[in-house]
Amino acid sequence: MPTVRSLEQRLKRIGFLIVFIVLTLCILLAFSWDFDWFASFSLLLPIAAITVTALVKSYSLTVDVIERFGIQLDALANNESNSWHLAQYQGGRVATLKKDFTKLSNKIAQNKRHYMQTEEFVFEFARMLDLPIVILDPHGQVYFTNHAFLNCLTTPNIDGLSAEELGLIQQATGWQQHEESQFKQRFQLSSQVFWRAGRCFELLTLFSIEQQLRKNEQDIWQRLIRVLNHEVRNSLTPIYSMSQSLQSMKQQGQITTAPDLAQDMLQVIEKRAQHLLDFVSSYSAFSKLPTPNKQQINNEQVNLRLQAIFPELVIHSSQPVNFTADLGQLEQALINLIKNAFEAGGNTPPTLNWQPQNDSVVIELTDSGTGIANPDNLFVPFYSTKAQGAGIGLVISRELIRNQGGELQLLANPHAVGIQAIITLSIQPS
After folding, report:
1. What is the CATH number of domain 121-211?
2. Class of 295-426 in CATH
3. In what order do the strands lie in the sheet with 133-136?
4. How much is the pTM?
5. What is the pLDDT of residues 205-215, one digit of tens each?
6. At 367, is the secondary structure helix, strand, or coil?
7. Domain locations along the chain
8. Going by C-beta distance under 8 Å and a sequence separation of 6 or more, which residues neighbour residue 378?
9. Is residue 68 over pLDDT 80?
10. pLDDT given at position 61
11. CB 313, CB 349: distance < 8 Å
12. What pLDDT shows up at residue 352?
């Protein structure tokens, strides 16, 4: 069966067939009535003219209706559904077609409203997430970012930048972060393609590798400390109790009161057992940090409390800074760091400096002490450079800062000897 490639071809074929049938009938009729050639021509000409005219008119009307409906569909595609280009047809199948078209137009408009509402909800939801999210347009330019993504960058302004300029490159295995990117830490990227207004966009979600490693590290230390706490307490508590009982019995005369070596040994046992119990108790705090109660506070509140504890501390603050944090936990972390700064020695007292920076506040504590002896072990629990140190102060201070959604760094003082502790906190609640 021959293939008909278009409706126009089919209409033309049907028209030619009708003309052929009419002319054939007219010729047969002329022969049956024995008409001469003039009479036959006079009969055939008007019939052929009327038939061809009717067919051409029918063809034109059909094609016109199709073209007008095509224009109507183009108008619908361009969100222009108010006009109807076949208004001259008030009845019949075209009028019914108008009703179908109106239903389709209303359905598309309803779906578009639902789509816009869903899209608005998704964008608003992405803004609220702590997970860094960026959407790239079809040209690889930044189309949308949430607050968490901006906090991960070292540059405050990303308008007009492309993903490649930010340090995000697309490879065969997926999106990767370049070594010289504009991000503060390393991320693992997940991508998802979606279509919006007929254009292809790409949504990138950034997962912090350092944060996951940090969480795993914290979980391991907490489990270790819980085991140590349980085992050491179970062993030391009866030893401490028995040493106290023996000393009490000796003082009451139940045991000879003459001074001897046993008395001295009991006192040593008691003191060392108490020291170990206190040692374990200090590490228990690391595994039981409470959930922070974040509130809007001011740096002047913190300054007044710190100045009362450390009168010699030098505080610089160019302007008041309001930010969100747990005042008690932040104060405890600062006290630990300032105490270490004073103990580091130096010719001048430590300096505390407040600096607002974009959506964050940076707290710099600088001392003029001996500096960092072993920077690789600074935040390793049980490690301390002090003779009587427990090696827990810096670890707890860092966890207290991270509890606020911030970060603590210890660096060599870039301007002189000593150490510079840098705390970065978000101004807005996370």
Report:
1. 3.30.450.20
2. alpha beta
3. 142-145, 133-136, 199-208, 187-196
4. 0.45
5. 988 766 665 66
6. coil
7. 7-88, 121-211, 222-287, 295-426
8. 372, 394, 410
9. no
10. 78
11. yes
12. 92
